[in-house]
Write a structure and sequence with these properties.
The protein is an all-alpha fold. It contains 7 helices and no strands. The chain has one domain. Helix 2 runs antiparallel to helix 5 and helix 3 crosses helix 5. Bound molecules: protoporphyrin IX containing FE (2 copies). Keywords: Membrane, Transmembrane, Transmembrane helix.
Length: 141
């Protein structure tokens, strides 16, 4: 479960960066919002929802959750365990919520530029949050 989560993270990051880049260029060049743009947004949503599911699955099986519930104050004192037990899971849930909100909001916009703008803001914010709270050192070790 943990390994699937680590590998799936590459897919999430790559597709999300691509989606944000696509939204920025679409917005700045005032392109038409096509089927392809829709599919990029939807694919990003699905990939990140799957990561949410895998993340939650692992989290409740993981030693981090157990440590947080049995020995919370020790976990909170140590920045590494606090990141894995609390900050990363919480911030990732917020980021995926932003992606979901962005997806919902874009559907209600009628102008193409407004659709790109919605994706740019919500997916972009999500990307920043994710980059800030990935446990980078664990990932590459
Ligand atoms: C813990 C697991 C999950 C939660 C809490 C969750 C939550 C949500 C929520 C709140 C929405 C509503 C978006 C809207 O207002 O339109 C949504 C949409 C969606 N979710 Fe998930 N989801 C989860 C897992 C998954 C998984 C595993 C998949 C794919 C295999 C998935 C695929 C989708 C798709 C395709 C939509 C949007 C459909 C559309 O608007 O056209 N989700 N999800
Ligand atoms: C955009 C969504 C997410 C991304 C990109 C992501 C990415 C990552 C990465 C790269 C790691 C390091 C993996 C490693 O140790 O090799 C990790 C670890 C972890 N993630 Fe996520 N994650 C996401 C969402 C979540 C969610 C929603 C949860 C739980 C609610 C979660 C729970 C965890 C836990 C508990 C670990 C620690 C693994 C361990 O060392 O035991 N993640 N995540």
């Amino acid at each position: 479960m943990k390994d699937i989560h680590s590998y799936w993270a590459y897919i999430v990051l790559i597709i999300l960066i691509y989606a944000v880049f696509n939204a920025i260029t679409g917005f700045r060049n005032k392109r038409n919002f096509t089927d392809k743009d829709l599919r990029i947004g939807l694919f990003t949503l699905i990939v990140s929802h799957i990561q949410l599911l895998i993340g939650l699955g692992w989290y409740f099986m993981s030693p981090w959750y157990k440590a947080l519930t049995t020995n919370g104050s020790e976990v909170m004192k140590d920045s590494t365990s606090r990141l894995l037990a609390l900050e990363h899971p919480l911030m990732m849930i917020i980021a995926i919520a932003l992606i979901t909100i962005g997806w919902s909001k874009h559907k209600k916009k009628t102008e193409d530029t407004a659709k790109f703008k919605t994706f740019m803001i919500f997916y972009g914010l999500a990307l920043i949050i994710i980059l800030l709270r990935i446990p980078w050192t664990n990932w590459f070790n």
